[in-house]
Amino acid sequence: MSRLDWVNALPQRWEAKPLRAVTDYVVSNVDKVPADGEVRVRLCNYTDVYNNEFITLDLDFMEATATQAEIARFGLAVDDVIITKDSESWDDIAVPALVRETAPDLVCGYHLAILRPRKQHIHGAFLLRCLQAKPVRVQLELAANGVTRFGIPKSDIGSLRLPVPPLNVQRAIADYLDRETARIDALIAAKERLLALLAEKRRALITRAVTRGLDPNAPMKDSGIPWLGEIPAHWEIRQLKFVAINLQTGPFGTQLHAGEYITGGVPVVNPAHLKAGKIVTDERMTIDDVTAERLAIHRLKPGDLVLARRGEIGRCAVVEPAQAGWLCGTGSLRARLRREVANPYYLALMFSHTLVSDTLVLESVGSTMDNLNTEILGSCRLPIPPLDEQQAIVEHITEETARLDALRAATERSIALLKERRAALISAAVTGQIDVPACAASTADREAVP
User: Fold this and answer.
1) pLDDT of residue 82
2) Which of 43, 156, 201, 380, by CA, is between 20 and 30 Å from 397?
3) Contact at 8 Å (CB) between 19 and 157?
4) Which secondary structure element, helix H or strand E, spans residue 103, and what is its range?
């Protein structure tokens, strides 16, 4: 069901009404900047709404100030529904939250709209679920306008058509959805805890292998590196610059501009393309052959290690044979290794170690953003086993993590299905496509819901 198809399929005694007929609504203009002479308040901000289904006093609200007139107009009441009025994406807008607890100093902030239900027409809990239902909310998504940031005109908020059953049916549906979504959310939370455990087990497996090796009986020695501790006695500690042929950043003096990117050309590898130890390019971030030739010094070869030099420092990947000739981007750094000394896949595992990335972050430079340079990276000290042992470690980790990754992927699919089930259940319930459980409504009301 999409757009307004649900209107013609509503049960008897249900109506489709514009939001302005069942709620009062206002768009907040209370900003975060404190001002002298104003009253101290707690501000319910965009992220409080976006990240929480329910607004309660347990949330850590921002301290700000507001005038008495703003407090009177934008102060929050129990049963209000707040929606996000702006977004960077048109299809990620009008996200709702229901106010379950409030206080005299709790005020709605900028980029949000307050929808205050008229009690004789609609319950806030039911309105929340309506705005979570894709067939209903899509009206606001399509009404959003903008280019780099999207906003919903106030008039379109008022024009939003809502399914409006009798009040006791609304309450029954809201109570039913509270119970059912709570069950689904508990399952999702359990599976997310499993994902966290799998991630921790994966990290522990890699840490053990790349810092202690595979032989539990190997003699040990002090590495001389505080975060590393002991390593097998036959391993060496080397700075990266001595196991690399060269280290090189992406093109500083010849940065690419937006107009130089084409679709389907030579890929440029930036930090955003380094995902889970692999290079995953964006076909929109490619350049033509002439520009690629101009930047030929930054071409990548199989076995090169590409690292993020800013942003999420420590993110890295090995260049595969099919990726030869791609370009190291401005935000990346390339390490071309001495293959008789270092296995690039082993070093990629080392750099994925949180203690290595944390050390690089501490040593990075920059006024507004942490940045790595070749000097900092080249000075990084790493444990280097014999080459055959590096290969054995890589093979061991690949085999062991494959099982963990398969379980992770299955768990992520299960979570996605549960979220789809949750969304479908809400949409079906608020548009009258499923029967509310008998214990939740009177006989007459149940007859109104086919």
Assistant:
1) 98
2) 380
3) yes
4) none
Q: pLDDT digit string (tens) for 60-114?
A: 999 999 999 999 999 999 999 999 999 988 889 999 999 999 999 999 999 999 9
**Cβ 22 vs Cβ 117: under 8 Å:** yes
What would the pLDDT profile of 297-341 be if each residue is shown by its tens digit?
A: 999 999 999 998 877 777 899 999 999 999 998 888 999 999 999
Strand partners of residue 325: none
Q: Which helix (H) or strand (E) holds 380?
A: none
Residue 96: strand pairing partners: 83
Burial of 146 (0-12, 13-18, 19+ CB in 10 A): middle
Q: 247 pairs with which residues across the strands?
A: 335
Contact 53, 59 (CB under 8 A): no
- Helix H or strand E segment including 41: strand 39-44
In the structure, what pLDDT confidence band is assigned to residue 449 with cuts at 50, 70 and 90?
very low
DSSP letters of 261-318?
Answer: -BSSSEEEE-GGGEETTEE---TTSEE-HHHHHHTGGGB--TT-EEEESBSSTT-EEE
Distances (CA, A) of 204 to 306, 322, 352, 401: 24, 31, 12, 11
Q: Is 276 left (phi over 0), alpha (psi -120 to 50) or beta?
A: left
pTM beyond 0.90: the answer is: no
pLDDT of residue 358: 79
